[in-house]
Write a structure and sequence with these properties.
The protein is α+β, with helices and mostly antiparallel strands. Strands 1-2-3 form a three-stranded antiparallel β-sheet. The protein has four helices and three strands; from the N terminus they run ββααβαα. The chain is 35% helix and 10% strand.
Length: 145
């Protein structure tokens, strides 16, 4: 993955799997660049499946979590090299997959993408390091006269 915070996308090496073989990759939007619009999109996806009981309490938190993660995959994975193991045809990116097809993607692939996209979730959910750096080369460290 690129360390360049200005990069638009980064390439992620995917693990070898029985279905997809070796040498697979995914191109994801740079997880260091997250906007308010990104947060709004994931929140809308999450809230769209929330179910309430008669007392107004949320009854299906798991569905909201799944919908949010699926939206993350659909918004952030912009290309990948996966091919259907039976036909050899390219597997559409998550944005172009229905829920059933997305659920059928090998979990080893999904786990790597989840790890790479964790900074996005942390930022969207408010869990990020906002402390100034102690690195003297960092622009957030006050200069000394």
């Amino acid at each position: 993955m690129s360390n360049n915070p200005r990069a638009q996308t980064v390439r992620v090496d995917l693990p070898a799997t029985e279905d997809y073989g070796t040498g697979q990759w995914a191109e994801i939007r740079n997880p260091k660049r997250v906007t308010k619009g990104d947060r709004d999109d994931l929140r809308v996806a999450s809230f769209s499946v929330v179910e309430l009981d008669d007392d107004g309490k949320v009854t299906n938190v798991g569905a909201a979590s799944v919908a949010s993660f699926d939206a993350l995959l659909r918004h952030w994975v912009v290309a990948w090299s996966l091919k259907d193991p039976e036909s050899g045809e390219p597997v559409p990116i998550p944005l172009d997959l229905d829920d059933e097809a997305l659920a059928a993607i090998d979990l080893d692939i999904i786990d790597v993408l989840e790890d790479e996209l964790k900074p996005v979730l942390d930022k969207i959910n408010g869990r990020r390091d906002t402390k100034p750096s102690t690195d003297p080369q960092s622009p957030s460290v006050p200069s000394r006269d």
